[in-house]
Amino acid sequence: MKTKFVAIAALFAMLATTGFTSCSESKKEEVSENIDQTTKELDTKMEETKDDVKKQRDEFVAEVNTKIEKNKQDIADLKAKAKDKKGEARKKYDEEIDDLEKRNDKMKAKLDDYKDDSKEHWKSFKEEFNHDMDGLGHAIGDVFKDNK
Predict the structure, then answer these.
(1) Which of 68, 98, 122, 139 has an alpha carbon within 20 to 30 A of 8's alpha carbon?
(2) Residues 26, 145: contact at Cβ < 8 Å?
(3) How many C-beta atoms lie closer than 10 Å to residue 22's C-beta?
(4) Closest listed residue to residue 121, CA positions, set 112, 129, 131, 133
């Protein structure tokens, strides 16, 4: 998105330069005013885009934090269930649950560490993150299903 704005601004600058060399003084002023107006509009659009991405990110973070907290509770429930198991089965469940807990913590850290403001990167990050969260949710739900 930012690249498009820069390219448009560069195009206007080139046109203005060409116009300045072959136009009358009033035309030069008009072109200069048009460039100033276009630059202001581009700045406004870029700020609106940043604000929109920030709003989307804030909403997403709140939603994901709720999921992460639910995962923590589900993991605590799994730990309680695993206490009923004995020997190798208990060891296996403890290892799986420990892995799930680490994955959940990594997801939280990944979310907290994300700082990019660009709309394109945010969309990509969000899709990948949702995919990983879904996988984690399924893994949590499957712990005792596969190992009864």
Answers:
(1) 122
(2) no
(3) 8
(4) 129
| Domains of the chain by residue range | 2-142
Distance CA 92, CA 123 (A): 37
Tokens 């994955």 locate to: 103
The closest of 18, 60, 10, 69 to 39, measured between CA atoms, is 10
Question: Which regions in the chain score pLDDT beneath 50?
Answer: none
DSSP track, 94-136: HHHHHHHHHHHHHHHHHHHH-----HHHHHHHHHHHHHHHHHH
pLDDT digits (tens, 9 = 90+) for 98-123: 999 999 999 999 999 988 777 788 88
Would you say 79 and 97 are in contact if contact means Cβ atoms under 8 Å apart?
yes
Give the residue from 139, 125, 108 showing the smallest Cα distance to 56. Answer: 125
